[in-house]
Amino acid sequence: MPVWWPPAYRYKHLFTFDDTQVSMSGTTETELKTFRFYKSAYAPFRRLAMLVSLWVSGGTGTLKVYIDAETTPRASFSTTSTSEVFATLAFSVADLAYGPHTVRVRCVNSGAYYTYTRYLDAWGEV
Q: Residue 111, SS3?
């Protein structure tokens, strides 16, 4: 007899899509985007996958992804490109407890230049 699996066990779930351009300047890490997701027994997410864009006016721009109040980023991406560059970041969330979680996207630059981000697409994978 075949086993029926609820949809959460068969699909990626789109958490967010955001194409609002935001920027920051300088060497202080600045939170630019956030979104929330809920992990449960029905949707026991193991991984988060994100498509992000980043570019700078100069220096090296770094995008970092944190969950909840963590002080160490789960993923990061750096560029020196003055044209928009896309990257896919994937990382484990298997260690998170069931319940709501906040994903924080922060940027920083190596100098007194602007760092821009526009595109953020995030999926939870079961």
A: coil
Enumerate the domain spans of the chain: 11-125
Helix (H) or strand (E) holding 26: none
Q: Is the CATH code 3.20.20.70 the one for domain 11-125?
A: no
pLDDT digits (tens, 9 = 90+) for 32-60: 999 999 999 988 999 999 999 999 999 99
Burial status of residue 14 (CB atoms within 10 A of its CB: 0-12, 13-18, 19 or more): exposed
Query: How many angstroms separate the most distant Cα atoms in the chain?
Result: 64
Closest CA to 47 of 105, 103, 87: 103
**Digit-coded pLDDT (tens) for 66-85:** 999 999 999 999 999 999 99
Encoded tokens for 68 = 């909840």
Instruction: Give the residue from 6, 81, 87 showing the smallest Cα distance to 41.
Output: 6
Euclidean distance between CA atoms 108 and 87, whole angstroms: 16
- DSSP characters for 59-99? S-EEEEEEETT-SS-SEEEEE--SS-EEEEEEEE-TTSPSE
